[in-house]
Structure formats: structure tokens, C-alpha cells
What does this fold into?
Amino acid sequence: MVSEKYIERMQELFDIKKVFSKPEALKGIRVLDISMIIFGPATADFLGEMGAEVIKVEMPGRGDVMRNVAPQGYYWKNVSPAFFAQNHNKFHIAVDLHNPEGREIIRRLAARSDVFIENYRPGTTERKWQLGYRQLREINPSIIYVSNTGYGQWGPYASRPSYDALAQAVSGMSLITGFEGRPPVKIGIYLGNYFGACLSAVAVLAALYWRDKTGKGQYIEHSQCEALIRAMEWTWAYIGLTGKRRRRIGNRDHVITFSDLFRCRDGFVVIEADTDDELVALLRATGNEHLYTNLWLRDDFSKEDKIKHIHDIISRWALKFTRSEIEEESNRFGFVCAPVQNARDHYENQHLRVRGSVWEMHDPVYGHMIEYGPAPKLSETPGRFIWAGKPVGFHNEYVLSSILGLDSAEIKALAERGIIGKWIERKGSKPPDDWYDEGVIY
Amino acid sequence: MEEKSWEDWIREEEGRVFEKPEALEDVTVIDISTSHAGAFICSTFLAEFGAKVIKIEPPGGDRGRRWSAESFYHRGCGLFYLSEGRNKYFITLNHNTPEGREILLSLVKKADVFIESFGPGYLDSMDLGFSKLSSINPSLIYVAYSKYGHYGPKASGNPRSYDASDQALSGLLYVTGEPEEGDKQLESAVPTRTGSWISSYAGGAWGTFSVISALHYRFLSGRGQMIDITNSEALMRFMEYTVLWYHVSGRIRERIGYYDLAVFPYTFIRVKDGYAFIAGYTDPNFKALCRIMEREDLIDDPRFSTMDARTQPENEEALHREIEKWSINYTSDEILEKVLSYKGEGIVVFGRVNEPQDTLKEPHWWERGTFRKFNDSHYGELILQMPPWKMTETPPRVKWACRPAGFHNELIYKRYLGFGSEKLRELRTKGII
It folds into this structure.
């Protein structure tokens, strides 16, 4: 039995109400991010969660494509809801990278930054924009420079463009997912982007720790195909040693003894048992404890047949209960179970609210928001969402004056010549219709 | 400017892995987790960056060593450990004995990071929890993995979980798979789990992220801390706008097979020799796709002429049909050739849907060292995927594959605690190691 006192102590240690009274691990680290869509911006976002100051650079006018990547064409307050998940806590500036003076602004900001992130095709930042690693380290030797791509910076396919689902396809991840004989399954989220971004952020942190000790910066390259290849566990060793292909087995697990998806009264649950203890617990919960000796331990049945028999029993049993009833049984008896949760389940889940995994905040521009919050919980330096993504060029004045010392006449002149800019009268780019000037910092 | 092209320079720079130092070479990690894939992968990632990871198993070995596919074992080792045991030092210790407990405490005093997966309160009840360990080593970074976490209303539930459960809790399971089609009761038209143990990789990645953040903070402040991680929340952070969309519109995101809610075309299609992925969803990219397909008539079709029109579900279906009418006539290589030789405005992204065996045949990955045929002194020739990061100063690397339980007992107990062979024999007899 878990001690309630212990959980109370932990609750106190991690109390979400105290997050803003605690320090940030990456305070004082400045990230300059010229990337677009998800893979690069999410890398910056994750560092921003831990307290880094992220400057997001977009093209004046339309800005980042994700502003218009709208689920079923749905916009919220003039921007796609899909823009927010990888854009928190950032300062938004819009600078024309195609203009040499715009690139000069980026160079000056890079000279004052710790981390630089880009996700263009290999060589673009160096050859086209003079913003390559070899050029930036001349003006800032301790810079940590990250390039995110599909296929990497070099190699036969390096120049090929990529997206998340392309990485799912070419890595092999799609064809180890789903049922034999059916079309490949596209994973329901942009997994290669977010998982890849998390790994990119990990490499930045490792480089930062190295820099703490030595003062040296470095160049990091990360490919989303390679990220997914890395995450395919034993697939490669298995093929190497046996020469066999990895079968598609739907919702079962190649490794865990008993694991599958079951229909129940109000949706689906996953039920699993790997150890004998867990299997006994499962059989006991369904009133079939005798099957452990009468079936499971016998060697005159194949493992496949035994599992099928138990599977059929559980299929019938599960239909009688709700997801939460079965979850309670799993806790009471000691097998493993989880409800298949959807957006509403997450929204209404108090456990996730208490832990800040579903995060509530009031943004000065967008108002009340509920999003997936920082994943790991750190007792001393917890991650946090401070504000949401902003319209294009929202923080031009603040960033250019506070870091580069430009005065308002200089900023105005740059804007007049189109070197910097703001939002235009277009969905995705512009503020909500009812917004005046709340949240603007000068 | 520079003499060498960028590609040549970076390729050469990244080739000199073993001439260079490791980012975490001064960090010692104790991983006492048991059969928890997320915790295990966390310590693997740290070991790839150069941390000295001491993996403590009960005498006889961790149950996770038996994790394998199709009942295949290689020289007694399950494939999960074989693939993810890289660079670790494997020792055994029974921390349930008074002497074993003292040994654990002495190791913790010398460690920077401690990783466990016993569930909330278990180690604490043995006075080996965060409060005890941080009292003997105040700068310790203590990482706890469990199903629901160490606090919150559900924290007292069964702390064990496996990948499919964590995918279910995260919401990923709900949005992945084929939709139901009318009354057809297809076995495959259900929420579908992503094939690999992706929740554990998410948990491992966020664990590594937190540990190195905490190391950086500790470098500045001297202070350690506790980190509470669940694989399901780790994966949930990758669930994008799913909960925000519900908050602002009341819509629940459903599974939609190979379609996409927000961008189209961005989908799998049939080709002459299997399946492929194709995308051209912004206006210039969609036009490029139409030109490559020689279907410029689609560009001005009102169903497809804007990004928002293209993502209406019925239009996605119609456009998917139009693309397949064309793609089914060509092999994946033929289409790739058309896409790569297109020189007009806009970019089409295309690639074959590979079986893992096909991926292993692509020379690109072998040239880049994504895969390596690894001749391990204990396990012989293995194909392993290498660390996914390339870094010019501190490149991550693989030094060895897994080792049997207790393989490094002599080395570690001598190096850290000074135990000689006499002492080790005694501990072995008592069943402590």
C-alpha cells in the first residue's frame, strides 16, 4: 500500500502553485531560433519551458506556416490552435532574411545569444545567408548551433526535403505499426517532429553543460529520420541476428506476455500482464484464477493458444464494465490497465490538472488557455508556461531596443524599408479581432 | 570564404568521434530501476553522452533482460537489453539486506544522478527515498519513474505500466489508426498502438532532458533536486493542440487513418510497388505536385484551391483518389525521380514507406553511421542503431553493447568502494551481490 503521507509530502515538494516562486534551470540562456513549422520551434520551446529566453524569428507578414496549419480549417482568435503547442514563452520578431540588412540584425543578435536553431536545407544558412555555423562562431565562439533536418547535413539523400510523416515512412516506423495486410498507419500526431525536437533539446543541454565546464561552443546536427530509427528499439538487432522481418501485430506487444486493446462499456481499455503475478491478478479479477494452473502452466497447449483463450475471456468480461471500473480493478488486483483517453478525458482529468500536465493559463492576448503542460516535474527548477505564442513581429520593439539598443526612429526606419515587419491583415498572422494593446511590452 | 564546402567540412569534422571528449564524462549515474523501459532508456541516453552509468540489478539480473521478441535470445540476452544496454556498467546488489543497503548508500554518496522506478513511497519506506539520499548527498539529482507519478489523486494506483498502457493514457492511442467505415466491422478499425515502445523513448528523452537541465542548474547553484516522470505524460507533451482544440471548440480529435486534420496532401498513397508518403500542402507546394502529376486542372478546382479547402474531410478523400489514380501507375523510385527532377517553384516531399529491412538497405544511413555493424567483444557481430545526434566537440558514441548482470562487479566495487576480491567473495556468498 502506498503511504498517503508520502504522497502528501511529494505534493508539497512539487506543488504547482509554487512553480513561479522557484528558479528556472536555464535562466540567462538566450536562444535565437530562425526555424519554422514544428521540429525547430519545438526544440526552442522545450528550452524555453526551462527558462531560456527564446527569440523566435519569422518572415514579416505571414510568418510561420504553422499559423495557418489549422485542423479542419478551424481558427481560434485568428490563428490556428496548432500554432501554440510549440510556441510558449517566446519573444516574436519578424525580420526579412532575404535582405542583407535583415541578416545583419540576426548576426548581431547571434553574437549575443547562447543557442542558435535552424531547420533549412543543408548549407542554406551558410551559402545563402552567411549565417552558417562557421560564420557565426567567428563572432561568437561559444555559440551552440543546432541544425534540424530530415536526412542530416551530408550523405546521398541530404538534399531531400522532409516532413514528419516522411520520417515515419522511411524509417520503417509506419510498417511496424498496425495490422498485417492493412495499409500503413500514419501515427496520429507529428511524432517525428516533437520527439525529434525533444532529442535536439537534449543535445543542446549536453552541449551547454560542456560549455559550462570548458567555455566551448559546438555544432549539433539532428535528423528526424534518425530520431525515429533510434526509437525502434530491438528492430535492427533482431533483423541483423535473425534475418527475419518484424511482423505487424496490431495492438498486441511483441515483448510483453499479455497486452491488448479491449472494448468496454464506454470506450476502450488496454489490459496488460507481463509477470506471472500480474497474470494471476488478471485472472483473479475476472473470476478465472483456476486458469493459471489449469491452462497457463500446462505445456500441452501452445503459448499462442493460451493467450487467445485468455484474450477471449477478457474480451467478454471487459464489455460489462466502464474504463474507470476496470482501471480500479487493476489497482485493486495488481494487473496493468489504462483507459484509452481522448481530449475530453484529458481535459476533465483532475490528476493531470494537479500535476500541470494539463496546464491552465491566462494569456494577455489570447485569454484563458488549456494546453498540455511541461512533461517532467522538477522539484527545484520546474518547467512552466508563462505566455502563449504571439502575432507576427509582436516583440520587435522590445527585442531590438533591449538587446541591440535601437531607438524608436531606427526601428521605424527598418520597418518602413520592410527589413523588419509585423502581422498583416490575414488569419494566422494577426491578433484577435477584439485585441487592442494588452500584453505589449516596449 | 572557407576552402572546404560545408558538407565536406562537417562530414570530416563529425568523423573523428573517438578523438574527442564526452559531454557528460564527469557524471556518475546510478540506475536502480527494474524492468522499466523509460528509466532504462534514460540512463542509456546519458551513457551515450559519456556519463558513467552504473546499472544495479538484483542478483540474478533484472526481469527486463528477458524482454525479447518472438522468444529470440542472443547468448542468453533479450533483445531489449541488447539494444539499449550500451555503455553501461552492470553490477548486482541486493539492497534489501542491511549490508546491501550500506553499499547502496556509499555508492550514492559518489553519484551525481540516481534513477529508480519502484513506485511512489517504496524506497522511502525503506528510508532510501529522496529525503534520505539528498540528506547524504545534497547535490544529488534523484529521478523517479512510475505510471502515474509520485503525487496527484491517482498516485496511489498500481505504479507499474507497459508501453501500450502509457500510449493509452497519453492520448496517442486514441488518435492513431483506421477510422470505422460504416457498418464494416474491420478488426483493424480501432485505436492502434504505435509499433515501437514510443512512450518509453518519450519518457527516456524527457528524463535525459530534465537530468541535464538539473546538472546545468547544479553547476551554477550546487543544488540537486527530485524529478518525477511518467512515460504517459512524456508522450502527452507531443500531443500538440489536441486538448487546446477541445477547450476552444469542444471538438474531440478522432483517428483518421492516413489522412491529416490540418494539412493536405500529406498522406500515404498506393504506388505500383507498395505505399509511399507524399506531401504538397502549402499553395506553392500543391501547385508543384499538380504539375508533377500533370494535373494542372486541380490547381483551380474550388475543392482544392486553398489550404483550408484542401483539409475539409470530403475534399481530402477526393484529392487522395485523384493522386492515387496517378501514383498507382508508377513505382516509388519512378515517382521519386519525377519529384527530385522537378525544378519549378514549390517543393514536393516524397518517400517510400519502408519495411525496416528496406531502411537497412539504404546506403545513406550506413554512410552516415546511423547504423553500424558492431563487433562486440561479448555478443559478437550486431547491427545497432547509433546515437541520433552528431556533435562537433562532444560527439555521443557507442563503446560496447550490453553486458551480463554483474559483469562489472569487480571493476565498479573496486574503483568506487575499494572492495578487493576477498570482500567480493564474501558478499557473493551472502547473496548480496
User: Anything to note?
Assistant: DSSP finds 19 helices and 14 strands in chain B.
